[in-house]
UniProtKB/TrEMBL annotation:
Organism: Sphingobium nicotianae
Origin: domain of life: Bacteria
Family annotation (Pfam families): Peptidase_M16 (PF00675), Peptidase_M16_C (PF05193)
Signal peptide region: 1-26
Ranges for domain Peptidase M16 N-terminal: 72-216
Family assignment from sequence similarity: Belongs to the peptidase M16 family.
Name of this chain's protein: Insulinase family protein
Length: 983
């Protein structure tokens, strides 16, 4: 469920999926639920439920037990989305089989009885599907789901695809060669996933679910079990669990459901189960005898305290009454979350705290509390959070509190109804198999809203008090403390803090005084329109006001119920010197959370609750941005919210302190994993250590005093051009009036152009050997990066787009060789960055994680790929397999508001944007093998590259020759040298 503000962030997926469904072609009211005496049997999906069925879905079952659900949906046009879920996950594994469910998922994608090894990926690329986004799979503790989105679906393509999927599931190629190849890939995935966060997560899982399968079973498995996996053992696991009677297929898309049903029957009816069905193992129940407290030490992770109130998981029929009662539970938790968020924003001992309800992997029904303390004040933070929860357990909420949360959630459900007609096929198919996983159903958005509204009788102080007490009662309670460094008697202190009685925090309750738009400062009289001209694409108008504000506006029904609002103002990063380091990372939170006029962060949360109002602040190279997705009813107030922010900014030290405390809570001088090291340093280093991209560090505290922050940002909020974009479900004349009354009412703004040196972007000098980055994670974890300078600006925009195709080709070759054949890496990738606002600073870079001893091989392979691309053209088929997915993506985007909004931003100051946007498809799709060869020869030049490696601290640096890094004498002449990077 889409949320619009932090207080709405904790609607748990397990709960929401019970109600979030698909749009109806005919609406069904909640009162239409069948009675127990109904003579018409319900389809398998709704057998144990009385919720109104969604008639858009057609359900069926094959004689072999395979179940399916199919619906017609023409959003996006031409696409068919397929989800195949098998009821097998890590919880079905025996100890020696740890990781087998995930291993078989990988092997199934490699090949089967019908498709040679690796060929399914190429077939789907030719059909316009991108591997990793349009084709993918996921294994969880309770299921494995295969996903396919065919952007250009026709009968032949869907027939071929379902044939491939049927073979993948029933007869994957689990033989010696593919098992050995994919073993290395799975090992690489496991290695890349090692991080401080994953280690803490493993500790939490084993501790919370002690004595249960969920506590012992990691989805990825163990190094020992993966190394020992044989084709015979994997085949035995597959035959035991991969059965048609454990499989569900959901298809939604732009094709006749009768045809899709015939294809399912044609390709899946021949699948026969091997032997009798194996009963599901007992997932166990929370063990009240297991230890109640645990302390772990993880230097690179934030201090955190987690509480779990654990109850046995039991199946509940997905009835209307059950969902209404559960909605009361959700509102009760949201009341607590709002109190916790307000306390955190006003200087509590915790940076963040939240409560959530979840049915975790059909193993427990649990209420989880997560606390991030300020610094090391974990005991005080735990006490404060427990006190807020205790007050909710002891005293019923006011009806005003309840109504506020109820209306907020109702607004979110109403938004889903408004956008039901444009809900995508992928979302519909995904929701259905997700509901199967948690043993629940889906309903249409309209029915969902009606069920929610009919739950109003549950929203009384007494009933919510009962919900709260039940949610914080349990058969077992656990508390886990994660520390950055060991502390004396930490376990005993945690045990004492958990058991100590707490006084209810009556001061955490929210006031009944409403904050409304009238609470904001008044703006001057509306401005006047001085010009109005068509842009020439999808009906967009370019409107100028007498104060210099410009508006790009289009009203349409492309997304019913949605209005996209984006405001660009000032000059973004270009208003800072490259030599400055002003902690720009803290600005989005610091500015948004500081409030407006006399309305602080708490007041903003109150004002926005239950409405489609947002507040995203961003920093682009050439502008600052305020953006939100609103509604026809709320967008005028969204505009006022943004305009008054610029006119009457509030300056509050609390958000700055909170941002700094959040950084320090998780900061480690040396990153805790290879991926963390890349994330912290790469963007900055590839821009020649430009201070405007500098990574966050504790030394930034000096830049985040209130006086310095205000001095830095007040003039930037008050100056520079303003461009407002409104795209969506609006009346154009009303929208013009709304802008005139808000941004058009602002005083004319001074526009001081940044100095030319601020617009320049730079790529680092070539290096003679890779720069060394360090991490403190496992010694087996390493990474390698190589990058070449390209260009910037709009004069060679066609070339920049063709460089994106070159990067896609490099990524595909790396996947084929480095992952699929060698198994040296799991996520090798190449990307092209081309800044349009600067004539320089662009680059094409390649990165991957891998073992330290494979680093020289990576550089050698990249040297070979670069040389091959420069020396001869790629085949037309290889290029087409990258072009076709882009063609389908552009076809889908052609009439998208979001697409044109992104392409035309800045048009009011640079009209060339329209020409650049209209040439995008041509520039990308007309790329030829000769173009790719010319680009590779021009840019992938030996001696011009910059490279880096990431190793665990103290690990020896592998020997890498100049030939392997594609660097030669030119790099030495440039003065490049290896050096550790730090900030």
């Amino acid at each position: 469920m889409t949320t619009n503000f932090a207080a709405r962030r904790l609607l748990s997926a397990a709960l929401a999926l019970a109600l979030i469904g698909s749009p109806l072609t005919a609406q069904v009211s909640a009162s239409a639920a069948p009675s127990a005496a109904s003579a018409t049997p319900r389809p398998w999906f709704y057998e144990q439920s009385d919720v109104p069925m969604d008639p858009a879905w057609h359900f069926g079952e094959l004689p072999n037990g395979l179940r399916y659900a199919i619906r017609r949906n023409d959003v996006p046009a031409g696409q068919v989305s397929v989800r195949v879920r098998v009821d097998v996950g890590s919880l079905m594994e025996e100890p020696a089989e740890a990781g087998f469910a995930h291993f078989i998922e990988h092997l199934s994608f490699r090949g089967s009885r019908d498709v040679p090894d690796g060929e399914s990926k190429r077939i789907w690329q030719r059909l316009g599907a991108t591997f990793g986004s349009d084709t993918n799979a996921q294994t969880t503790p309770t299921g494995t789901t295969y996903a396919l989105d065919l952007p250009r679906a026709n009968e032949a393509g869907i027939d071929e695809s379902l044939k491939i999927l049927a073979g993948m599931l029933s007869q994957p190629n689990i033989a010696k060669a593919p098992v050995e190849a994919e073993r290395a890939v799975v090992m690489a995935e496991r290695r890349e996933g090692l991080s401080p966060q994953s280690r803490v997560g493993d500790e939490i899982r084993s501790f919370y679910y002690a004595g249960q399968r969920l506590g012992k079973h990691s989805t990825i498995g163990t190094e020992a079990t993966l190394a020992a996996a044989t084709p015979q053992a994997l085949n035995a696991f597959h035959d035991r669990w991969y059965r048609p009677d454990r499989t569900v297929i959901a298809i939604s898309g732009a094709m006749d459901p009768a045809l899709l049903e015939a294809k399912i029957r044609a390709h899946f009816s021949g699948w026969k189960a091997q032997g009798p069905a194996t009963p599901l193992p007992d997932f166990g129940k929370p063990d009240p005898r297991a230890p109640a407290t645990k302390v772990v030490v993880e230097p690179s992770a934030p201090y955190t305290v987690g509480l779990a109130y654990l109850r046995p998981w039991t199946f509940n029929a997905d009835t209307v009454a059950f969902n209404q009662a559960r909605l009361a539970d959700m509102v009760a938790l949201e009341l607590i979350n709002r109190r916790l968020e307000v306390a955190a924003s006003q200087g509590a001992s915790f940076l963040q705290a939240s409560v959530a309800l979840d049915n975790s992997s059909r193993s427990v029904n649990a209420t989880y509390v997560t606390i991030v303390p300020v610094g090391n004040e974990w005991e005080k933070a735990l006490k404060e959070v427990r006190a807020i929860v205790e007050d909710a357990r002891k005293t019923a909420p006011s009806q005003t509190d309840i109504d506020r949360e109820f209306s907020g959630m109702q607004g979110e459900y109403a938004a889903l109804v408004a956008s039901a007609d444009i809900e995508g096929s992928a979302r519909q198919a995904e929701d259905l198999v997700s509901a199967v996983d948690i043993r629940e159903t889906v309903v249409s958005p309209a029915t969902q809203l009606e069920i929610y509204r009919s739950a109003r009788s549950y929203m009384t102080p007494d009933k919510l008090l009962a919900s709260t007490r039940r949610l914080f009662s349990a058969s077992a309670v656990r508390a886990l403390l994660s520390l950055k460094t060991a502390q004396p008697n930490a376990l005993a202190r945690l045990t004492t803090a958990l058991r100590a009685p707490v006084q209810a925090a009556t001061n955490a309750r929210l006031g009944d005084k409403a904050v409304t738009m009238a609470s904001l400062p008044a703006l001057p009289p509306p401005g006047k329109v001085v010009s109005r001209t068509p842009v020439g694409i999808i009906g967009i108008q370019n409107i100028a006001f007498d104060n210099g504000v410009r508006l790009l506006l289009v009203g349409n029904k492309a997304e019913p119920g949605k209005v996209h609002v984006k405001v660009r103002f000032g000059h973004g990063r270009e208003s800072f010197s490259p030599k400055q380091d002003d902690a720009l990372w803290a600005a989005p939170f610091g500015i948004a959370a500081s409030g407006i006029g006399d309305v602080d962060q708490r007041g903003l949360a109150e004002l926005m609750n239950g409405r489609r109002l947002g507040f995203d602040f961003g920093i682009d190279d050439d502008a600052f941005t305020l953006s939100a997705t609103s509604s026809p009813e709320d967008y005028a107030d969204q505009l006022r919210l943004f305009a008054t922010k610029l006119a009457f900014p509030r300056w509050d030290e609390a958000p700055l302190k909170r941002a700094m405390a959040a950084l320090e809570a998780g900061y480690d001088p040396v990153p805790g994993s290879a991926s963390d090291a890349i994330e912290r340093n790469l963007d900055w280093m590839l821009r020649d250590r430009d201070g405007r991209y500098s990574p966050a560090a504790p030394s930034d505290r000096a830049a985040l005093t209130l006086d310095k922050f205000k001095a830095l940002w007040a003039p930037r909020l008050a100056s520079g051009p303003i461009e407002v974009q409104i795209y969506g479900d609006v009346d154009t004349e009303a929208a013009i009036q709304a802008v005139a009354a808000t941004f058009g009412a602002l005083p004319k703004r001074e526009d001081l152009q940044p100095p030319p040196e601020n617009r320049a972007m730079h790529f680092p000098r070539p290096v003679s050997s890779p720069v060394l980055l360090s991490h403190t994670g496992p010694s087996e974890q390493a990474a390698a990066i190589i990058a070449w300078p390209t260009g910037g600006g709009t004069a060679r925009i066609r070339e920049s787009r063709q460089l994106e195709m070159l990067a896609r080709l490099i990524s595909d070759r790396l996947f084929e060789k480095l992952r699929s054949i060698d198994g040296a890496a799991y996520t090798p990738s190449a990307s092209s960055i081309w800044p349009e606002t600067s004539d320089s600073g662009g680059y094409l870079f390649v990165q991957t994680q891998l073992k330290p001893d494979r680093i020289p091989y990576f550089f050698q392979l990249m040297n070979e790929i670069a040389a091959d691309l420069a020396s001869k053209p790629v085949t037309q088929d290889e290029l087409d397999r990258q072009v076709e997915p882009i063609r389908q993506l552009l076809n889908r985007a052609a009439y998208s508001n979001a697409f044109w909004m992104s392409q035309l931003e800045g048009y009011t100051t640079d009209p060339r944007k329209l020409g650049l946007a209209t040439s995008l498809a041509r520039d990308l799709l007309d790329t030829t093998p000769a173009d790719i060869q010319a680009l590779a020869a021009r840019y992938l030049v030996p001696g011009q590259s910059w490279s880096a490696i990431v190793l665990a601290r103290g690990m020896p640096v592998p020997l890498i020759t100049k030939q392997q890094t594609a660097s030669g004498p030119a790099a030495q002449a440039a003065g490049g040298s290896p050096a550790p990077a730090s900030h």
